[in-house]
Amino acid sequence: MAARDEHPADQPPCPASGGGGLLPGELRAWMLLLAATGAVEQRLRTVVKKSLDVSHDEFLILCLLAEQPRGGLRMTRIAELLGRPKTRLTYQIACLQRSGLVTRESVCGDRRGIEVALTDKARRLLREASDTLADTVREALSRFVGPEQREALSALVPELADEPRRP
């Protein structure tokens, strides 16, 4: 067996956002951002399960619904926004409904349309967990989003680099 296989620390580091590889800059930048957001998501999964006792995908549904000023969202819209198959979403909504976190109602005038909304219980749980969840995201972002990711984001969306930082 080669020494390289025995000592993975001796292997070269992952390529940076600079050129030289097969991928165009935009795709390299996107991959750096995906890696960073994936790391943040992993940190958040554990806290979401502990704080709200729901899966990460169910948490994303709750977050979408929490941003609605009134009422809820149609299931088809939730599926579009999350990029999830409708069949998978139906299962997740059923789990949230059994937990008392969402309601499902038919949309008036559309026998196939189903609207999903948060319950008061879900609103209370989200309020109680929001500081912990926000702290988790902030800590994970500060750990996993460094100069390479900021440079990648600026390369993908140049107008972001021109905007002043918010306090």
TrEMBL record:
Alphabetically ordered keywords of this record: DNA-binding
Coiled-coil spans in chain: none
GO biological process, any: response to stress
GO MF annotation: an example: DNA binding
Domain HTH marR-type: 26-162
KW Zinc (keyword) present: no
PANTHER family from the UniProt entry: MARR FAMILY REGULATORY PROTEIN, TRANSCRIPTIONAL REGULATOR, MARR FAMILY
Protein name as it appears in the record: MarR family transcriptional regulator
The species this protein was found in: Streptomyces griseochromogenes
UniProt lineage: Bacteria, Bacillati, Actinomycetota, Actinomycetes, Kitasatosporales
